[in-house]
């Protein structure tokens, strides 16, 4: 028997063996949650709930993990919501924000694909006028997904001005969804955050109800710092929902549970790959079972 | 969050204050809070366990300096263990750049997860080698996956003022690497930086692809580029890249953020490779040397106490 098969069999048998839910078992559960990035506080809170109801009972690992996944799914289900799109807005403006490299540009491409598949006309605004080849990156995605790209006339142009022009153009040509890309920025850089607020202000000069959605893109690989990101972006630009990317990797993105408890912001999407089709709705139960290593 | 932890620790340590030497229970109690502090800083759980075990062994029964409290002494022991684990020992200033001590052209391979900062760091390394060490650097992008990735590196090369390998559509990463090394040999470059596409540690096909590039180019440095915000998964990433590709050094990016950077400790522990450089911004000159003591202080968040004990 190969080593990996042995390992698998071993974990399957431990999964079904009954054991008493004692302090040691509870500690192991807490560690499973911590290792999935839920953070110490959220992990403790969840395990405490378990101590009250099930302490001392004989249970299998399978049962206990399933029940824990159910408890987490309960925390997550209120935030598992699709991103609302209001056809009354012409266009519905989505501002996409987040720290560097999380997957903002790719998520815009994926959303564009989704809206095009639904028969909506959709355009992108290449608002990252800073990073090398960021505009070209979005332009390629525009070509692939059939979305018009509003690009700056020259390098280093003002992102707010570009968004202003793009929104005006979109109102005229009947675009239904306008997705605005922004440069990645760390939330602790106040000048960059101020620039982002300016984009919002300038957009409002064209449509005072816009942006209609502000999507914060989080990388599932991120640990506890996601809490700070969510807090500061929320305060600065009034985030309306989250997308969690790179869930096709080994990172579980457990910090989302802590975020749900602390901010209650809707989680709209998960990114599960680098292609335009790799966007899924956030499903509380699937996500929770993934956290516990169950499928 | 920072202060809350700090004051909690101080609370525990206050109770230890009037005692002479460090008893088992004293240390145990203190280490419970240290464990939380490290986990909140994103140090991976197995690494935390390992570190606290080492500290426990070292601290119990230790003589306490006259002029500091036992509490402060424990923090100092934790801090020293952290510094040591991050790569600095006694008297180590910690500054360590790239090792380019090999016949030219010296290949440097950049690897890591998607979006970790490989391409930007490639540009930064080129700038540093060009200005500080007067090296002739060639930048080559092997990223055929991400839209406009090759153009991104080409743009950075122009900003730095170094050459980038001309883009030829349709080539595989291996073919690009071959062409890069060929050009570098013929045109007498000192260093060739091979930037690669981001890949997930569990993506067997892409991991095999980069392993193949490595087998061909035989880089003198293989740098794993990681984000300072990385959480518990750091251990999985580090293990996979170490096993499947082999890593000679770690670059931690986005140190300009406010993440405490516990991933540095996880990465170092799992790969055994030194942390060589830090990315501290989006601009091309934002590349810093790594100092274990500074990162240790950032992870633990108790720099004041540490320097107090050091002065005692
Ligand atoms: N595996 C995986 N990779 C992803 C996912 N989403 C994005 N990526 C990759 O992550 C990297 C960064 O994505 P971008 O969309 O450029 O990220 P960004 O937030 O726009 O980056 P900046 O504009 O530089 O801040 C790219 O290599 C993407 O292909 C995902 O869901 N899964
Ligand atoms: N604040 C900050 N941003 C950084 C740093 N290093 C890189 N970045 C930013 O992070 C984002 C991603 O950087 P890239 O160099 O494109 O990352 P990559 O690893 O090449 O990404 P892929 O090729 O898609 O895997 C960009 O927005 C960079 O400007 C850093 O040290 N600090
Ligand atoms: Mg982008
Ligand atoms: Mg790159």
From TrEMBL, chain A:
<dbReference type="InterPro" id="IPR000897">
    <property type="entry name" value="SRP54_GTPase_dom"/>
</dbReference>
<dbReference type="Pfam" id="PF00448">
    <property type="entry name" value="SRP54"/>
</dbReference>
<keyword id="KW-0963">Cytoplasm</keyword>
<comment type="similarity">
    <text>Belongs to the GTP-binding SRP family. FtsY subfamily.</text>
</comment>
<dbReference type="InterPro" id="IPR042101">
    <property type="entry name" value="SRP54_N_sf"/>
</dbReference>
<dbReference type="InterPro" id="IPR013822">
    <property type="entry name" value="Signal_recog_particl_SRP54_hlx"/>
</dbReference>
<dbReference type="InterPro" id="IPR027417">
    <property type="entry name" value="P-loop_NTPase"/>
</dbReference>
<feature type="binding site">
    <location>
        <begin position="181"/>
        <end position="185"/>
    </location>
    <ligand>
        <name>GTP</name>
    </ligand>
</feature>
<feature type="binding site">
    <location>
        <begin position="98"/>
        <end position="105"/>
    </location>
    <ligand>
        <name>GTP</name>
    </ligand>
</feature>
<keyword id="KW-0472">Membrane</keyword>
<keyword id="KW-1003">Cell membrane</keyword>
<keyword id="KW-0675">Receptor</keyword>
<keyword id="KW-0547">Nucleotide-binding</keyword>
<dbReference type="Pfam" id="PF02881">
    <property type="entry name" value="SRP54_N"/>
</dbReference>
<feature type="binding site">
    <location>
        <begin position="245"/>
        <end position="248"/>
    </location>
    <ligand>
        <name>GTP</name>
    </ligand>
</feature>
<dbReference type="InterPro" id="IPR003593">
    <property type="entry name" value="AAA+_ATPase"/>
</dbReference>
<dbReference type="InterPro" id="IPR036225">
    <property type="entry name" value="SRP/SRP_N"/>
</dbReference>
<comment type="function">
    <text>Involved in targeting and insertion of nascent membrane proteins into the cytoplasmic membrane. Acts as a receptor for the complex formed by the signal recognition particle (SRP) and the ribosome-nascent chain (RNC). Interaction with SRP-RNC leads to the transfer of the RNC complex to the Sec translocase for insertion into the membrane, the hydrolysis of GTP by both Ffh and FtsY, and the dissociation of the SRP-FtsY complex into the individual components.</text>
</comment>
<protein>
    <recommendedName>
        <fullName>Signal recognition particle receptor FtsY</fullName>
        <ecNumber>3.6.5.4</ecNumber>
    </recommendedName>
</protein>
<dbReference type="InterPro" id="IPR004390">
    <property type="entry name" value="SR_rcpt_FtsY"/>
</dbReference>
<keyword id="KW-0342">GTP-binding</keyword>
<keyword id="KW-0378">Hydrolase</keyword>
<comment type="subunit">
    <text>Part of the signal recognition particle protein translocation system, which is composed of SRP and FtsY. SRP is a ribonucleoprotein composed of Ffh and a 4.5S RNA molecule.</text>
</comment>
<feature type="domain" description="SRP54-type proteins GTP-binding">
    <location>
        <begin position="266"/>
        <end position="279"/>
    </location>
</feature>
